[in-house]
Amino acid sequence: MSKDSTKGIWKVISASSMGTMIEWYDFYIFGSLAVVISTKFFPSDNPTAAFLSTLATFAAGFVVRPFGALFFGRLGDIIGRKYTFMATLLLMGGSTFLIGCIPSYDTIGFMAPVLVLLLRLLQGLALGGEYGGAATYVAEHSPAGQKGYWTSWIQTTATVGLFISLMVILATKNILTPEDFDTWGWRVPFWVSIVMVGVSYLIRKNMDESPVFAKAKKEGTTSANPLKESFGNRYNLKFVLLALFGATMGQGVVWYTGQFYAMSFMKTVMNIDSSQVDELLGIALLLGTPFFIVFGWLSDKVGRKYIMLGGMLLAILLYRPIYRTMYETTDLALKTELLSETKQNLEINKDKDSIYTTQKTYNDGTFLIEKKTHFAHKKEPQITKSITINLQDKWALIFLVFVQVLFVTMVYGPIAAFLVEMFPTKIRYTSMSLPYHVGNGIFGGLLPAISTYFVTHAKASGKSDYYLDGLWYPIIIASVCFVIGLIYIDNKNKTTHL
């Protein structure tokens, strides 16, 4: 590839990646702040139900992504890639900013969760049209035989978006007092996105249309009805279904287990301090992100199939041992307690609720704060724990999350090139977007809510290893996808449509 063509492709990747990264940032801010949001937009008298409701609202944004894929995919195949994903960027950014402006449940009651849900649905629709456009745009600018490498830069944007969301949250927490962050500071990351969206819009505005699509439009070979040609044609529908059940379904659950479920698990099951979780997850993501490029490049050399299926198989075999080890790092029953302990510092708030605080320091440096709140209107007390882990445990968890991120990079790095190569130019945006967003939006997006429900149910039933039950969902889904992909996917790189 010549120096000039390299310069051209980097402009395309930079513009596409920045916009997509911002959209993922917008989407993940909600998930990263799920624990805080559950106390702001939902009734506070049942924290578990409020958290599950927040996860369900988060999942709702994923559920509608396939509809966004159909709507914006059709537009992208008719009017072009550039203008379609400019529209999705503005829709996503506006929705995110407005979530940060919604009054709390205490102020406007049930209208708060209703408005949040509506804006999450708009976010999901926008994201449904974004990824297919960006991946298609980059692939159609890429030289033959290098689609995996160049499109893998787009694959990094989801992880980078999550990483930046964590860093913005950490920075906001460090600048503000805990009280200010809890009162209004949690809204700042939502507001910040509008500035990022404005910059990205100006960059995308000056981009040219994809040369492959521009050529097809000039020759009059674009599709008049992309939806019918994508899903009404039995031959093309076969590839859509294979892409879903043989690749993106498993890729979706591996992605969300390795990044979102890991974060939720550490905060809500292991009870690690939220800022510590954001920090160690950010380090693991930073270390793992370059491997998207590595596996995207490798897929150009050896094919997409075995890299993606290898990541699924490793996840299937290793998830339970990994999460058991993670849990044991903060299992207080395995630690020797020091003599320093403070108990029952009584506080009584304005609602006459009694709050008892216990602080314990363990010999390895682990620090526990446990609050037991006796509500005036409830019989059972609410118990909350916050564990600050020592440096050794912190790096152990960073490594275990990093291993999960490696699984993610294996299944996600080659997926854009794999999907783009399956479909012809005139229906590519529509055809690839639907299986991708069903796999990620439905199967992947529902994972946090379903897995958290499994863990909650198993804990209530008294299972000793209840914390592992949430993993059955990604293990089963990935296993089904692995078998289908192993049998039906051809490992040869398909380039006939490019």
TrEMBL record:
<keyword id="KW-0813">Transport</keyword>
<feature type="transmembrane region" description="Helical">
    <location>
        <begin position="432"/>
        <end position="451"/>
    </location>
</feature>
<dbReference type="InterPro" id="IPR020846">
    <property type="entry name" value="MFS_dom"/>
</dbReference>
<feature type="domain" description="Major facilitator superfamily (MFS) profile">
    <location>
        <begin position="12"/>
        <end position="497"/>
    </location>
</feature>
<dbReference type="InterPro" id="IPR005828">
    <property type="entry name" value="MFS_sugar_transport-like"/>
</dbReference>
<feature type="transmembrane region" description="Helical">
    <location>
        <begin position="395"/>
        <end position="420"/>
    </location>
</feature>
<keyword id="KW-0812">Transmembrane</keyword>
<feature type="transmembrane region" description="Helical">
    <location>
        <begin position="184"/>
        <end position="203"/>
    </location>
</feature>
<dbReference type="Pfam" id="PF00083">
    <property type="entry name" value="Sugar_tr"/>
</dbReference>
<feature type="transmembrane region" description="Helical">
    <location>
        <begin position="84"/>
        <end position="105"/>
    </location>
</feature>
<feature type="transmembrane region" description="Helical">
    <location>
        <begin position="48"/>
        <end position="72"/>
    </location>
</feature>
<dbReference type="GO" id="GO:0005886">
    <property type="term" value="C:plasma membrane"/>
</dbReference>
<feature type="transmembrane region" description="Helical">
    <location>
        <begin position="306"/>
        <end position="323"/>
    </location>
</feature>
<dbReference type="GO" id="GO:0022857">
    <property type="term" value="F:transmembrane transporter activity"/>
</dbReference>
<feature type="transmembrane region" description="Helical">
    <location>
        <begin position="117"/>
        <end position="138"/>
    </location>
</feature>
<feature type="transmembrane region" description="Helical">
    <location>
        <begin position="150"/>
        <end position="172"/>
    </location>
</feature>
<feature type="transmembrane region" description="Helical">
    <location>
        <begin position="239"/>
        <end position="260"/>
    </location>
</feature>
<feature type="transmembrane region" description="Helical">
    <location>
        <begin position="21"/>
        <end position="42"/>
    </location>
</feature>
<keyword id="KW-1003">Cell membrane</keyword>
<feature type="transmembrane region" description="Helical">
    <location>
        <begin position="471"/>
        <end position="489"/>
    </location>
</feature>
<dbReference type="InterPro" id="IPR005829">
    <property type="entry name" value="Sugar_transporter_CS"/>
</dbReference>
<dbReference type="InterPro" id="IPR036259">
    <property type="entry name" value="MFS_trans_sf"/>
</dbReference>
<keyword id="KW-0472">Membrane</keyword>
<feature type="transmembrane region" description="Helical">
    <location>
        <begin position="280"/>
        <end position="299"/>
    </location>
</feature>
<keyword id="KW-1133">Transmembrane helix</keyword>
<protein>
    <submittedName>
        <fullName>MFS transporter</fullName>
    </submittedName>
</protein>
